Amino acid sequence: MRVSVTRDIFRLAEIFTISRGSRSAAEVLTVTLAAGGLTGRGECVPYARYGETLASVEADITGLPEEFDRAGLQELLPAGAARNAVDCALWDLAAKRDGCRVWQLAALAPPGPEITAFTLSLDGPDAMERQAAKHRHRPLLKIKLGGGEEDVARIEAVRRGAPASRIIVDANEGWTPDLYRALAPVLVRLGVEMVEQPLPAGADEALLEMERSLPVCADESCHDRASLAGLRGKYDLVNIKLDKTGGLTEALALRAAAREAGFGVMVGCMVGSSLAMAPAVLVAQGANFTDLDGPLLLAEDRPSPLRFDASGVHPPEADLWG
Questions:
Q1: Active site residue 241
Q2: Active-site residue, from 96, 142, 144, 244
Q3: For 214, left (φ over 0), alpha (ψ -120 to 50), or beta?
Q4: Is residue 81 left, alpha or beta, with left meaning phi > 0 and alpha meaning psi from -120 to 50?
Q5: Which class for 211: exposed (0-12), middle (13-18), buried (19 or more C-beta within 10 A)?
Q6: What is the pTM of this model?
Q7: CA atoms within 13 A on the CB side of 184
Q8: What is the rounded distance in angstroms from the CA atom of residue 228 to the CA atom of residue 80?
Q9: What is the pLDDT of residue 14?
């Protein structure tokens, strides 16, 4: 089996800002596996927060042996972006070999569309109100927050701009326990349904002692099934991202384990193309929250991109993946 990696850049429709910085393009790695005249593809987005760079992830992928399968890959690479792209490419290749769709290989029910959040970039309240008004037709908005009292003004502005939309928020580890206590009841009053990762991963013990009036979702604190034991009593939901789990194989296993342990499930993404989102649509089936809006943030996408409409994000066509 031949493994090749390319670096691809997709321009964003607008500058995208979170508490850690801004970007104007999505830089991704595309993995192609070739065997028996067939090819399978996967995409990953290396994330500096987890010590990943384009170069380091590419080196991990090109360092793989000539022959391996999906089970062996779980031992060859740790959870993370490198394993994600290769794992998803293996699923794609296997589906082509067997002449079926990936969900059939995985013994999953045929997938349907899922309502996805649309993310509003971090900005001042006035600018975020304008963003919200522009996207007020979307049923679910995800708001990036910065950590501070101005977060309330941001949510109030978004609610003015999009009075009928459901709202979830992402604090990106930017809050303190006192800030959660102060903000949670206000955000609940404004109709916010959940906050992602309010406290820093590894410094979230305070959640054990707090009354969580606003449900809390683990993002940076949850990577794969090994994370779950440390989340009990702290979090109400877990955010499953393929670039954290290391691919579709572990993502499906994490979803099952999380539900069995009593956690709600969110399925999220990094900022990438439709190729990155395609496997995640399978994981998102029946999720409490779906956030697979990466392609909606782009000015350009892959050929045969995912379809988004009033029903949500649709499963991929075979020309794209799976």
A1: yes
A2: 144
A3: beta
A4: alpha
A5: exposed
A6: 0.95
A7: 21
A8: 16
A9: 81
Judged by DSSP in three states, 145 sits in coil
Q: What is the pLDDT of residue 31?
A: 98
Half-sphere exposure of 212 toward its Cβ, with a 13 Å CA cutoff?
Answer: 20
Strands 140-144 and 166-170: parallel
Helix (H, G, I), strand (E, B) or coil at 23: strand
Residue 136's contacts (CB-CB under 8 Å, 6 or more residues apart) are 161, 162, 163, 164, 165
Q: Which of 96, 142, 234, 241 is catalytic?
A: 241
Residue 264: exposure state from Cβ atoms within 10 A (0-12, 13-18, ≥19): middle
144 is catalytic: yes
Residues with pLDDT less than 70, the chain: 19-21
> Which secondary structure element, helix H or strand E, spans residue 194, and what is its range?
strand 192-196
CB 173 within 8 A of CB 146: no
Which residues, at least 6 apart from 256, have a Cβ–Cβ distance to it below 8 Å? none
Q: Residue 319, SS3?
A: coil
Residues 174-188 have pLDDT tens digits of: 999 999 999 999 999
Output the pLDDT for position 283.
Answer: 98
Give the Cα separation of 26 and 114 in Å (integer).
23
The pLDDT of residue 150: 85
The alpha-helical segments, DSSP class H, found in the chain are 54-62, 70-76, 81-98, 102-105, 125-134, 150-161, 177-189, 242-245, 248-260, 274-283
Q: What is the pLDDT of residue 226?
A: 97
Confidence at residue 19, expressed as pLDDT on a 0 to 100 scale: 60
pLDDT of residue 22: 77
Task: Quote the tokens at residue 295.
Answer: 């392609």
Residue 116: predicted pLDDT:
98
